[in-house]
Amino acid sequence: MNALHFSHPAMSALVQNKASVWLREACHAAGKAQQVTETEATGARQRFERFAPVLASLFQEDGWDGRVRSPLLDYPSSPADVGTFLIKADHTLPMTGSIKARGGVYELLCHLEMLARDAGLVEEHGPLDALLTEEARALYAGRRVIVASTGNLGFSIGLVARAFGMQAEIHMSHDAKSWKKNRLRRIGAAVVEHACDYEQAVGRARSAAKGAGGYFIDDERSRDLFVGYTTAAWELRNQLAARGIEIGPERPLTVYLPCGVGGAPGGVTWGLRFLFGPHVIPVFVEPIASACVFVAMAAGGGAALSVYDAGLDNDTIADGLAVPKASQLVLDLIGHDIDAVVALPDEEMLSWVRCAWKEAGLRLEPSAASSFAAISYFLANLGDGFLFGRDLTADHVRRGVHVAWTTGGALLPDAEFERLLA
Ligand SMILES: *Cc1c(COP(=O)(O)O)cnc(C)c1O
Known about the structure:
The protein is of the alpha/beta class. The site of pyridoxal-5'-phosphate has 20 residues, from α5, α9 and α13.
């Protein structure tokens, strides 16, 4: 490891296990990956539309129309003195109760559709009612999806795959909570428990998929998964417009995005950058112990480094974010678009789990509450002068619109949630 890399001032607080903020200092060119195209992003929104009647029929949640959408909420107070403060409530997303309904699930939908097309049950870009037929169930019953997870991705893929009648093999790292594994087993998913971290669990799941046959959903390397998350940006744009909020040079948009491997915050960032250009400020939020995108940006120059190399231990209560190494694909696709990364102690997240419940009745898991916790750290570190190599000052940023993205929690069982509140 090149010691020079660790000389970045933001790294010195981090390696002492202290909250730290990394800010982009200049504009950067795009990475070397083949960039996501507008056509791919449009295709994802259209695919979700086509799936809506099918999902509504399989997941008969109260009056749900099958659209994977979450509300944009007001919050009774603001965690800092800012122009406008709103909540993008992905913790209430249908099916999974987490942001995984947009990305991980999207890749699964792509695969389900492809299997049906290959079997002649549906046509490209056509209606998907046939996915609910006996023929489709027979087809899916013979197919298996395999995924590795710290909890939420496996939980989400397992729930949706089983709803279609597909076999699901879920490889869980040691972080995964028992209730998620139990629920998956109850619905007939195979849960394989590993006494190792997320990165190693991915490796083992990948080998299992090669050996036994099955479709491996690769959270670290999947383009479809990333593209699925971009759809959230269009949704947010419409919701802001419906409130008469116009994003622009005088009113920039800052979004606080909880980050694990980077796929979810990365896809959202891609979409928001596409729609709002320089007027959006994506802030990725991580637990100190698992600050893998932080380390990649501050010490790796955009290359994925392991948090273990920075002396961090990847031990956090934020199980949705307990990842030691960022996705290199994500860094290549949107590393140049990340304006800031905030690394926070677990206590801050826990304290916001309690606050958001008390003040607004939001049922959040620690990973999701990290978005609230990040705001004051971010604002306190902006300093004077122009920011991010753009025509933006701290004052501009502060007076703009701030959106905390609450990425998961609505499906937490009461006992689990009470333990967090205690
Ligand atoms: C998965 C997840 C994230 C982050 O997603 P990545 O794609 O791993 O960066 C954030 N919050 C919650 C609750 C999650 O489940």
